[in-house]
Amino acid sequence: MTINLLQDKGIPLERQTMAWKDMVGKPISKLDDDAFTRVRAILMNGVELDSLRTKQVALRMNADARVTLAQMMRVEQHQATTINWLMSSDHSPLETTIGYEQTAIEVTASIAQLEPDPYLAQGYRYALLEDFDHLYRYSALLDRLEGKDANNITQGYTDIVPARPTWEHHRAPEHDLLEPYGPGAELSTKLHALTLTGGEYQTHDYYMNIGPLFADPLARQLYAEIASVESQHITHYGSMLNPHETPLEKLLISEACEVWNYAGCAAQESNPRIKAIWERFLDYELGHLQVAMELFKNFERRDPAEVLGDGRMSRFIEFQSQRGFIRHVVEKETALRKRETQFVDESEEGASSLQYREIVNSTGSPSHNASATWVWTPGTELARDDALERAT
């Protein structure tokens, strides 16, 4: 798919209208659709919600652009609704959680391999190991509470094994930060960091909302623990973003990020009905990008090419199993820790993180308790039922 960010116009903002039945249509199938269709839906909901946040900040800081930003936000709201409502009601909250963690793992693994900045690529691999371990802990909880095999959701694309233990993810805030990319960073670097920041925001917010709804005390504690780590990941990825970018510059990057992600989804989607949604919203976002470029030129008196380069898009996220790469990272980098903005051996970890971890884990670790004595095996329910029948 060949798109030029500076030249392709998309659908004008004033023609981007939707009715309720456009927004709330037929959901995906939990078992019949490919797992990466769910991954793309989860990812793009996070990207849309982050775009809304970006516009809210820009609206609060630019009086002259308020009407235009409000118009764009209304469309983004309806796009986010359409995507989020693709999740079917037969997903239990825990099964949706498994989908969120698979999304974090596979998308982060792909971005880690695409990222041209070695330091930021290390940052992606570091957080990848933590989301990978979260999948294992939630899979144990799914088996414990619902007797279900998480592989029914992941469809065999993603390994379900421990990595850096979740109870060791808890760091003092000063050790969550990274050095940001600079003004001369490649556009792909900016798109990668913004994509994963939005993804972590969405995951954090979902866990904060769904966790209190569980009756099981251990489930409530596990969601609280991992939501805290996801908050750390928002800081981790968010600190990669250049803090000296203006609000309208961030808006421009945000719109380019949406175009890039929708184009990647459309190019790889296996469900024709969902593919049509990605293509429609790609045209919408190209229209939004045109508006953002005009705001950037009119209010900052700058050429969008300063930010977008020649307009050619970088390589897309690859929506396919990253098993081989992830296994290598688990083997080689699980022992890494953080000290301020640097990655170090676990023996050199920042002392304040050790103190913080001792406090939050002083009454035990929910993630440890949820998975104690549990090891994932393929076909968990069926294997258990067969074994029970043989025993009787």
Work out the radius of gyration: 21 Å
N- to C-terminal distance: 58 Å
Total beta strands: 2
Shape field:
globular
Residue share in helix: 55-70%
Q: Tell me the fraction of residues in β-strands, as a range.
A: under 5%
List the helices and strands and how they pair.
Blueprint: H1 20-23, H2 35-61, H3 66-84, H4 93-114, H5 118-146, H6 151-154, H7 187-210, H8 217-238, H9 247-268, H10 272-300, H11 305-308, H12 323-333, E1 336-339, E2 342-345, H13 351-360, H14 366-371, H15 380-391
Antiparallel strand pairs: 1-2
Describe the protein's architecture and organization.
The chain has 392 residues and is mostly helical. Helices cover 62% and strands 2% of the residues. The chain is built from 15 helices and two strands. The chain has a two-stranded antiparallel sheet with strand order 1-2. A hairpin with a 2-residue loop joins strand 1 and strand 2. Helix 2 packs across helix 7, helix 4 runs antiparallel to helix 5 and helix 9 runs antiparallel to helix 10. It starts with 19 loop residues before the first helix and ends with a helix. 45% of the residues are buried. The mean pLDDT is 95.
